[in-house]
DNA sequence: TATTGTTATACTCTATAACTATA
DNA sequence: TATAGTTATAGAGTATAACAATA
């Protein structure tokens, strides 16, 4: 059975037979799976009126249990400070988070989930986890473990 | 050995022990590998003054061997017609491609690589393939085949 | 002087829809 | 009427740098 990448590799093979496409077969497939999965994830999040990065901020706060500074957040989520400020502000205005002034350092603040924010992220998280399970339906349990292991190996080799 | 996702899963486990994180371990790792790999790919392409989508257009034309219409291009590359028009125009102005008027349908045209465009994409492609091979250094040959197979299975189950 | 966080600015990229020409 | 491709517009999102307050 052929997937979309098989067709691309076949075209390359006909055009440039000397080209070694083995790496392209892996990288191309991973990028394509990423596109498909991201669409499915965003579909669930949009349903709850959250962007991917907004979800990431709320989820990061939730699983850390303690409030984080804007600096910690933009470093964790690989965003500029300015972009993080904007995101924080819109989440504050929607009642999901609040800024708590620091007592030790008066330049700084902690970003904290509101009770409403906790409720919202818990609901979205539930839908998100179910959604991800569905995305993996094509693999059995053993294959899922295998895939996780291979991806982990790639991450650790970076 | 722990990767970044292990830490996230551990935090979730402490915060919400009832949450089944097995799917998150796979999806999270794939999204993270995608971020890392895309950065590396874009580093090589930027070096040659090409964006990812510009590279994709040139590569699509190269491996198809025959010129394609703008419509075929934006459908293949999942872009709007307007966005594709803009991309085509900048590539024309840089001498990589040209529009050839269709004889059969005077509304239409074919987008064709110039000799300079072919030379450019061939050089970039070479660097790109080498780059991708390097990205897979952490896996041996058997593991690479395994990963390709698992990703293919995911794509075919969508 | 350096750092925290915000604000102002400008830039890139896109989708949408209006538009032209042709089928 | 429908379609191919372009153009005009507006929106989302970002990084950068200037900025104010504090260390």
Could you walk me through the main structural features you see in this protein, from its secondary elements to its overall organization?
The structure is a homodimer of 158-residue chains. With 158 residues, the first copy, chain A, is mainly alpha-helical. Chain A has 2 domains: 1-14 and 21-47, no CATH class; 51-131, Orthogonal Bundle (Arc Repressor Mutant, subunit A). Helix content of chain A is 69%, strand content 6%. Chain A contains 7 helices and 2 strands. Chain A has helices spanning 4-15, 22-47, 52-64, 70-76, 81-93, 115-135, 141-157; strands at 97-101, 109-113. A two-stranded antiparallel ribbon of chain A has the order 1-2. In chain A, α2 (22-47) crosses α6 (115-135), α3 packs across α6 (115-135) and α4 (70-76) packs across α5. Chain A is elongated. Chains A and B meet through α1, α2, α3, α6 and α7 of A and α1, α2, α3, α6 and α7 of B. Chain A binds a DNA duplex (23 and 23 nucleotides) through residues 51, 53, 69-71, 79-86, 88-89, 102, 105-109.
CATH topology of the largest domain in chain A: Arc Repressor Mutant, subunit A
**What is the residue-mean pLDDT of chain A, rounded to a whole number?**
98
Along the chain, the helix and strand elements of chain A come as HHHHHEEHH
Q: What's the alpha carbon Rg of chain A, rounded to whole Å?
A: 20 Å
Regions with little confidence, pLDDT below 50 for 5+ residues of chain A: none
Which term fits the overall shape of chain A?
elongated
Largest interface: A-B, 59 and 59 residues
> So how many helices of chain A?
7
Chain oligomer state: homodimer
Q: Largest beta sheet of chain A: what is the strand line-up?
A: 1-2
Q: In the residues of chain A, how many domains can be counted?
A: 2
CATH homology superfamily name of the largest domain in chain A = Winged helix-like DNA-binding domain superfamily/Winged helix DNA-binding domain
Number of strands of chain A: 2
Beta-strand share of residues of chain A = 5-15%
Helix-residue proportion of chain A: 55-70%
Identify the CATH class of the largest domain in chain A. Answer: Mainly Alpha
CATH hierarchy: architecture of the largest domain in chain A: Orthogonal Bundle
Structural class of chain A: mainly alpha
Rounded to the nearest angstrom, the distance between the terminal CA atoms of chain A is: 32 Å
């Amino acid at each position: 059975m052929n997937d979309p990448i098989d067709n691309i590799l076949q075209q390359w093979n006909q055009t440039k037979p000397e080209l070694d496409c083995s790496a392209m077969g892996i990288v191309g497939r991973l990028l394509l799976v990423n596109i498909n999965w991201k669409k499915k994830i965003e579909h669930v999040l949009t349903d709850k009126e959250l962007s991917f990065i907004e979800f990431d901020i709320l989820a990061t706060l939730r699983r850390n249990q303690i409030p984080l500074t804007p600096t910690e957040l933009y470093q964790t989520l690989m965003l500029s400070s300015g972009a993080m400020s904007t995101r924080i502000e819109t989440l504050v205005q929607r009642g999901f988070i609040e800024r708590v002034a620091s007592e030790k350092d008066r330049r700084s603040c902690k970003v904290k989930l509101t009770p409403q924010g906790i409720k919202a992220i818990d609901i979205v998280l539930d839908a998100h986890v179910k959604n991800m399970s569905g995305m993996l339906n094509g693999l059995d349990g053993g294959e899922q473990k295998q895939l996780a292991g291979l991806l982990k190996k790639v991450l650790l080799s970076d």
